[in-house]
Amino acid sequence: MNVTLKTLLLAALINVCSLTACLDAESASSKKIKIEKEKIDTAWHDGDIIFQTSRSGQSLAIQYATHSKYSHCGLLFQDNGHWYVYEAIQPVVKTPVKEFIARGDSDYFVIKRLAKNDSILTPAVMEKMRASVHKRLGKNYDLWFGWSDENVYCSELVWKAYHESTGLKVGELQPLKTYDLTHPLVQKHLKERYGKKIPYDEPMISPGSIFDSPLLVIVKN
């Protein structure tokens, strides 16, 4: 065998080895991602509450008013082997969890659940919770944060789902006037939404109030 042929065969062998190594590395990486995903998914429970910092136009105003970085939340449920977030945007919808996470600031999210989850969230209770969110699917987002059930905002959907199914108050309702309304951005949104008729006594629930509830513990940070 001449030198040129040997050189070509050696180069071909090196290329094959390199390709095999790359494929093996890619396969290992895919397996790692799959394993990590499975670990995350199996750590979730139906009814877990997922929080994020929204990138919506009103997010900063909510953060200033509530003194919390969490401006959006929803409920996790698994349907046909896939995880979804039931959330009040426009309108109330069920969103694949990856899409929900991608909409948040820097893809950051936190998941919390009841500390006594197993003893409270029985199958019968979970059916009630599902029914609570299902009956609100398609309702318009409530830009005015009213407590009636005509329209729904994000933390209202979560709070009512828990209260209607368990009787628990996951976060304390507060009248609008008890929030910090002093920031100029908050004032701007109030004037745009309500004009001169600001409903200071309207009971409201914020994502931050639910997040801070002593009934909840962190599952995924």
Question: Can you give a write-up of this model?
Answer:
This protein is α+β, with helices and mostly antiparallel strands and 221 residues long. The protein contains eight helices and eight strands. It has helices spanning 3-43, 59-66, 97-103, 117-120, 123-134, 154-166, 184-194, 207-211; strands at residues 49-52, 72-79, 82-88, 92-96, 110-114, 174-175, 203-204, 216-220. It has a six-stranded antiparallel beta sheet with strand order 4-3-2-1-5-8. Strands 6-7 form a two-stranded antiparallel ribbon. A hairpin with a 2-residue loop joins strand 2 and strand 3. Helix 5 packs antiparallel against helix 6. The radius of gyration is 24 Å and the shape is globular. The N and C termini lie far apart (62 Å). Residues 3-39 have low confidence and may be disordered.
Which tags fit this structure?
globular; 17% strand; 221 residues; disordered N terminus; 8 helices; 46% helix; 8 strands; six-stranded antiparallel beta sheet; two-stranded antiparallel sheet; alpha+beta
